[in-house]
Amino acid sequence: MEAERRPAPHEGLFADGHLVLWTLCSVLLPVFITFWCSLQRSRRQLHRRDIFRKSKHGWRDTDLFSQPTYCCVCAQHILLGAFCDCCGLRVDEGCLKKADKRFPCKEIMLKSDARAPDAMPHHWIRGNVPLCSCCVVCKQQCGSQPKLCDYRCIWCQKTVHDECMKNSLKNEKCDFGEFRNLIIPPSYLTSINQMRKDKKTDYAVLASKLGKQWTPLIILANSRSGTNMGEGLLGEFRILLNPVQVFDVTKTPPIKALQLCTLLPYHSARVLVCGGDGTVGWVLDAVDEMKMKGQEKYIPQVAVLPLGTGNDLSNTLGWGTGYAGEIPVAQVLRNVMEADGIKLDRWKVQVTNKGYYNLRKPKEFTMNNYFSVGPDALMALNFHAHREKAPSLFSSRILNKAVYLFYGTKDCLVQECKDLNKKIELELDGERVELPNLEGIIVLNIGYWGGGCRLWEGMGDETYPLARHDDGLLEVVGVYGSFHCAQIQVKLANPFRIGQAHTVRLILKCSMMPMQVDGEPWAQGPCTVTITHKTHALMLYFSGEQTDDDISSTSDQEDIKETE
C-alpha cells in the first residue's frame, strides 16, 4: 500500500518543472514589460524632441498642468502634455504634430513690411484662457465652462467669448494691450531690417510712431539662480512680450543680448535682470563693455527681479529681498514701468600681492555692493566651496541661509579671523586709522548687507546719516566676530563705525585671510587692496517695495533735517 501512494519520480520532476517555469514567468514578465515600456517611452521622447527641434513653437513638456487644461486640437481634457511658452498653446502628446502644423506661433518679425507698426491684427488662439479674465465685448468672465472655449490674443492678452467673437474683432488691429510701451512690435524689427539694408540708422522716426512713452524692455534671466525659478519666468515673459526680448544668460551672454539695444532709439531701453546680485554684476559689466565700444547712447536702465540668496542690491533699489512667485509676472512688468531712474556707484577693487619676485598683474574686481575681510567672507568661502561640489543641493534660499548659519556658528567657536587689527593696516583717503580688536572689516557701497540688514545706520538713539549708493562715498565698519555679526542681523547690536571715504586702502601684512567682493570669496595672502571709484551705472528704483527698515530710516533722516 505504501508503494502505491508514493508518487513516481517523473511526476515529481514534472511538478518541479512547472514551478520553475511559473517562477521564471513571474520574474521575467514584469522585467520584459518594464523594458518594453521604457523602450516605447524613449521612442516617444525622441519623436517629441525631433518635433521640438524642427518646430517654430517653444514647446515644453509637463507632467501635470497647474489648471484645468484642454487640448487645442482634439478639445479633450488633458493632465499632461506639451505647451508653448511663447504663444500659450497646450496640446496632448498625440496631437503635437497636428498642432505644430495647424497653429502658427508668435511672429518675431513680420514676413513682409507691408503692414505699418500700428496696423497689426490680433492673433487669436482658442481655449485655456487665464483664470478670472473678462470678455472685451460683454465684460463677463471668460473660460468658466469645462471645455475648450473662448479666445485670447497672444499679443494684447485680451479675451473674448466664442459667441462674442465677430468678424470685426478678427480683423481689428492689435494695440498690444497694457504692456504696449514695453513690447518691441514685430513690424518695428521688420522695418529696422529694411533700414539696415538701405544703410539708414534713424530709428527715432520709427519710434515716434509708437509714442513718447515707449520704453522697450529686455529680459535677462539666469535659469540657475537661487531657487531655479528662472526657467519658468522665461516662459511667462515670452507670453507677455515679444520672445526676441527674452534671454537666458546661461545660453546667451549679456553682452550679446544687450546688442538688441543698438536697434532701439537712444536712451530708451530698459533691462530687467532676473537673478541674484552676481547676475546683476555680470550684466553691469556687459554695460561697461558697451561703453568701451562707444555705445554710450544705447546704455539701458537696469531693474532687478531678485532670485538669489542675499539680494542686497535689489533690496537697496526697492525690488525686495527675494522673489518666490508671490506676485504675478504682469505686476512685475507694471512695477518696471513705474520705476524711476537713479545712479549706482561702481568701484574698482585692485589686489596687489606682496613679494619681491611677484611678476603677476594685480587682480581687479568691480564692486557694486561691498568688500569684506573676516568672518562673513569666511562664511561665504565655505559656502561657495560646498556649492561648487554639489550645486543641486543649494537651490533653496532657506537652505542656503541655514548653511550660512552653520558656518557662522562654527566660526564663533574656532575664531579663525581673530587679531585682525594686528594683521591689517587701514587707510581712508590716505590717512591711517587705528583699529580696535576686530575680526572683520566691511566696506559698503549700498545700504543693505548680509541679506537685509542696514549696517551703517544701525539702531538705537545714536543717529547716522543714511548711506547712499550715488554719492561717491564708501562706508567702512568693523565687526568683533561671527557672534557680533549675528547680533547685528537681529538688531541687538551695532557695528563699529570706522568712517566714510572716497578711497580705501587695506594692507594685509601676514597670513592668509578670507576676502570677498559682492559674494565672490577667495583666500588671500599678504597683499594691498585699493578701492577707488570706477563709474556709474544707470539703475531703476521702485519705491513701492519699502521695508520696515526703509520706512524707519527715512523717518529718522527726516527727524534729523527738522532738528537742523
Automatic annotation (TrEMBL):
What taxonomic ancestry is recorded? Eukaryota, Metazoa, Chordata, Craniata, Vertebrata
**Entry keyword annotation includes Protein biosynthesis:** no
Query: Per its UniProt record, what Pfam families does this chain match?
Result: C1_1, DAGK_acc, DAGK_cat
- Its GO biological process terms? diacylglycerol metabolic process; lipid phosphorylation; modulation of chemical synaptic transmission; phosphatidic acid biosynthetic process; phosphatidylinositol biosynthetic process; phospholipase C-activating G protein-coupled receptor signaling pathway
Q: What is its main location?
A: cytoplasm
The Phorbol-ester/DAG-type domain sits at 56-105, 121-174
What name does the UniProt record give this protein?
Diacylglycerol kinase
This protein's source sits in the domain of life called Eukaryota
Question: What are this entry's molecular-function GO terms?
Answer: ATP binding; ATP-dependent diacylglycerol kinase activity; zinc ion binding
Q: Which InterPro entries match?
A: ATP-NAD_kinase_N (IPR017438), C1-like_sf (IPR046349), DGK (IPR037607), Diacylglycerol_kin_accessory (IPR000756), Diacylglycerol_kinase_cat_dom (IPR001206), NAD/diacylglycerol_kinase_sf (IPR016064), PKC_DAG/PE (IPR002219)
Q: Which organism is it from?
A: Canis lupus dingo (dingo)
